[in-house]
Amino acid sequence: MSGRRASGLKMITDEETNELIYKLQSLLPESRRRSTNRASTSKVLKETCIYIKNLHREVDDLSDRLSNLIESMDRNSAQAEIIRGLLR
């Protein structure tokens, strides 16, 4: 991976890649619970993809729940006004 492209753009070195993967691994909840051993690059990338997909599902679920809550409230209630204010 190290070296230069023909276009003159600097390629990222193997050392830089390894450091970025280690930083990414440290952000993953599952990795933080395990020992501090470094996982393989492919494993970290797979775990990252799974984690991001789970976050997307969680955001969608919370959005649906919030929409349902707002729909069930009286539009002029104090609670509805607070929620609308928070969403602005």
TrEMBL record:
GO process annotations (BP): regulation of DNA-templated transcription; regulation of growth
Keyword terms, alphabetized: Growth regulation, Transcription, Transcription regulation
Keyword Thylakoid attached: no
One term of GO molecular function: protein dimerization activity
Record-stated family: Belongs to the bHLH protein family.
Protein name: DNA binding protein
Record organism: Zostera marina (Eelgrass)
